[in-house]
Task: structure prediction
Amino acid sequence: MAVNAVPSAVPSAVPSAVPSAAPSAVPSTVPSAAPSAAVNALREALGAQVVALPDEFVDRRVEDWSGLPSAVPLALIRPHDTREVAVALEICARYAQPVVTQGGLTGLVGGANLRGDEVALSLDRMNQIVEIDAVSGTMTVQAGTPLQVVQEAASAAGFYFPLDLGARGSCSIGGNLATNAGGNRVIKYGMMRDQVLGIEAVLASGAIVGGLNKMIKDNSGYDLRNLLIGSEGTLAVITRAVLRLRPKPTATATAWCGLPSFDAVTTLLRRAQAGLAPGVSAFEVMWAGYHDTVLANLNTLRAPLASPHPFYVLLESVGTDPVRHGGAFEEFLGAMLEEGVVTDAALASNEAHAQAFWAIRDAPGEYQRFIPNHAAYDVSFSIAQVGDAASRCEAQLHARWPEATIMIYGHLGDGNIHIVVDVPGLPKHDHDAIDQVIYDVTRDFRGSISAEHGIGIKKKHFLHLTRSEADVASMRAIKQALDPARILNPGKIF
Amino acid sequence: MAVNAVPSAVPSAVPSAVPSAAPSAVPSTVPSAAPSAAVNALREALGAQVVALPDEFVDRRVEDWSGLPSAVPLALIRPHDTREVAVALEICARYAQPVVTQGGLTGLVGGANLRGDEVALSLDRMNQIVEIDAVSGTMTVQAGTPLQVVQEAASAAGFYFPLDLGARGSCSIGGNLATNAGGNRVIKYGMMRDQVLGIEAVLASGAIVGGLNKMIKDNSGYDLRNLLIGSEGTLAVITRAVLRLRPKPTATATAWCGLPSFDAVTTLLRRAQAGLAPGVSAFEVMWAGYHDTVLANLNTLRAPLASPHPFYVLLESVGTDPVRHGGAFEEFLGAMLEEGVVTDAALASNEAHAQAFWAIRDAPGEYQRFIPNHAAYDVSFSIAQVGDAASRCEAQLHARWPEATIMIYGHLGDGNIHIVVDVPGLPKHDHDAIDQVIYDVTRDFRGSISAEHGIGIKKKHFLHLTRSEADVASMRAIKQALDPARILNPGKIF
Result:
């Protein structure tokens, strides 16, 4: 995915862009010098090595990549294992002490940021791979393990862990689970919830639920696992997980296609899904506005096709049959060109070619350099309506801001697009009017205001556009049932 | 799937086997002649055409295929649409009137059976396909639509709906969702929860949650959809759903393999998943005891291989490339024979051959004829532990009942096996001792007591073997939060 708006390398650059008056921001507070009774109890139970006071972690980053402000926590808890997490939460529940769980802090919606009255619970010390079971095809990990460590360990064991996103080096499996992370391979492998068999989690009470199940099928009672996944730290602290490993792909074919219309784009998607035997592993669509803007601004990029087209698609298929894979892909692409679904195409004949195609799609990592004040959106629709919804957004934005740069691109196979808007002269903290346009269209098309980034604090005021009053009331009832003292990540989602 | 113990054709034959004293059975009661205030209010609001009294539905079956007893409902509600469901539940909530939702009544754990104080809510009139969206690849249906109708409509529209189980002609999509149905194609396509994008459901209060979303990605708040799926009618009544359609396979390859050991079986699974480019669509393992017993008892079956083997696997791969599919499959099988992973194999050269292989795997539909008093189990383990768990079950059963017939078979790619035990002279209502052996081993191997059939009333007393106290307490808290008057399917699951 598309960590839009976030520099690929130096997240510490983001806080400089923190708006001075973000809508839902609580002013940063400096905790008073004397630790509270809750913090004292935590420190007594777990020791100073696990529970640090603010002057003991002054240099540590405590906010995510959203650019939203964060206060400093009253204490920073860094447990070594599930038992210490349970002890910490049991004490916090007793003192009604709010807790914000933190993983790699790469979120984009302020989900791990603080108001000032919370302790932070970092899982960074729980970063061990517990076991790889090559027969069952599973990897058991602690929640603080970085995604990239998991990917590399899977590869070393002869498997493939398909979840992948720009923040892979920093984000943790626990954060991926708490936010149900998406990324580039969802079309073939699903989101984070599809990569996991068992999760172990600690409730606000300190009770441990779930477990390290390796069963693919388990219809014994309610699906707590999927309820906790994507709940952004508001229902439980995920401590360990059993991940599902996949066969390692041994063949990749990649093409860059120019297409005449959005109808042709959806036709290519359907035909590729039906016609490419191992399936489609990436189907990244880019509107001409995106293509032209990033090529004009980044001189390391080169246009793969000689002539301009209204739409471009990066099509990729991975498989496990090196002998037949390339021929079948080429044949399919030839048929699409012959039928006019695709107007022109470039087939990657080696990995460097494929990387050059991906570099165009990965250009959002460079936004900070040429459009530092842009607004970025992560919305989803039915696949059939993506084209109309995007057109309506574009038309309404251009009507109001004729000088705006609008870039639309995304994972069409998932109905997920990103819309980036840069209005010259409009500062970053003044995006409310753009929000309104994008989210009103999203509501009208019954789409989602958050396809993969979550709600956090950034989108909570728009949640009602995607979820009904009855839905939100149900979520609140579940929150009340599992966290009656409301200590877990208060003020997030709703 | 393995509708173990249930005749494939005539479900009405089952009730004759109803045990006279099932452990959790409440004796059938005949409702008193005078309708209750709740039934009167329902009839007044919805009319006699929607709310029928017992003497108006005397010939109608009201119990599932479990063989467990069921009372007659106080009234039978047959709404036409979501609004009528909401009206009915709102009235039931007001009168604290328990409600049992019924779909096709093909469940195997008594999940839709009655104690006697409930009204039944049948979705059988809500059986319409609302829309097929060929661009988005979705089908919107009412929950009462039979699975087979959905499969056929998908096929007619050029798509494939992969969920498949023996009860396809009778079971409904709503029941498939309420129980998170599994079946034969889980290894490639997942369970019912993986076949659905949006669900609309009515809570006990009459409030409507969810909706007809076609988004593949939606990270806006808690995952109510997956919480309701598999909750066996205890949290809400699912009224409509948006199903996900898949590309129609155009090539199938099927082989029957004889293998020397369980290690060889897991090796074949891993190698097939890594080596067959379109993946594995079925991997059905059968222990020799199963193979030999069904072949000895059903003279329509013929052994595909000349010599006996300790294990047999029905391996199937479906794909969309008719040109390359067969060759790649044959090549893979050749390599497995050469390496000794597979000792002997028969490749289906036409559909009749493939059907003959499947007939051996589908023999459980005939159990009623030759082992009418058998006990059947549906358990799951990590793939690595299936062999050891099965061996331990077999050894313990044989030690206690040397004369027992034991048949083990199942979906190894999902870690899901079925164990069927026939002890000559042991009647159907006297299976508690067999239950204990199977479920103790399941607990010891940290498996699931219900891979795909659900808990209902049949397995509720064993739930603690698979789910912890904290898990069950969380489920109860969620139940209390969403159905505070406990009117929905009371007494089921826990």
Remarks:
- The radius of gyration of chain A is 23 Å.
